[in-house]
Specification:
Structural class: alpha+beta
Helix content: 40-55%
Oligomer: single chain
Number of helices: 9
Largest sheet: 3 strands, antiparallel
Shape: elongated
Order of helices and strands: HHHHEEHHEHHEEH
Strand order of the largest sheet: 3-5-4
Distance between the termini: 56 Å
Strand content: 5-15%
Length: 216
């Protein structure tokens, strides 16, 4: 037995053993084994952050080993292996977790559709969040929320949907996704790079330190 197997067994004991639950959080009813793949698919469809195997195992009340096998089956299913239909989306492992993404070859189609369906102006909250990302990129969602002192999940989803920001990379230590602006935003602003963004230091009270020391 490998170290990984031992770790999985320990996690499984915590996840599926009622005797190990010490808090008052309600434990979801276990999903029937035959329905685990579909249950995981449903959860992943609404997840806006990568989901770890442990988190998914807790959600469906199944052993981590079973969830790992189910994830592999979903990846193969979405990829059209075994004579199936290759989907327009894929299940990708990012930053130690799993999340559903649009396949790269359909990015342009989806971006165009979203832009056509959302012609309205950005809200003040969206504009403020976009400004934080533009000046502080790369930046994580948590850091954005800390600067704005509000939850920014829905606003970030809106900006992603509009194609104004993109996911740059996932921090290997924290698993946090870091965001940055796109060429679409530059074209909308009529500039060639973020270096051409207006300097904000003159707008600050002291006019010297800039945005946490980073003056543009």
């Amino acid at each position: 037995m490998t170290v990984e197997d031992v770790a999985d067994d320990v996690v499984e004991d915590v996840v599926i053993s009622g005797d190990e639950v010490t808090d008052t959080t309600e434990v979801p009813a276990p999903v029937e084994d035959a329905q685990i793949e579909r249950a995981l698919e449903a959860i992943l469809m609404v997840a806006d952050e990568p989901m770890s195997l442990v988190t998914l195992a807790t959600a469906v009340g199944a052993p981590v080993k079973r969830v790992r096998a189910a994830i592999a089956a979903l990846v193969a299913d979405f990829d059209g292996e075994g004579g199936g239909v290759r989907r327009g989306f894929e299940l990708r492992e990012v930053g130690g977790g799993w999340r559903i993404y649009v396949r790269e070859e359909f990015d342009a189609v989806v971006s165009g559709y979203v832009l056509q369906q959302n012609p309205t102006k950005l809200s003040q909250a969206a504009l403020e969040t976009l400004a934080v990302i533009a000046y502080k990129q790369p930046i994580s969602r948590g850091a954005i929320a800390s600067i704005r002192a509000v939850n920014v999940d829905s606003v970030v989803r809106t900006l992603l949907g509009r194609g104004l920001i993109t996911e740059l990379f996932t921090d290997s230590e924290t698993g946090a996704i870091n965001y940055g602006t796109t060429d679409l935003l530059l074209s909308q602003l009529g500039i060639n790079s973020v270096d051409e963004l207006p300097k904000i230091s003159p707008l600050l009270s002291d006019g010297v330190d800039g945005f946490e020391g980073d003056v543009r």
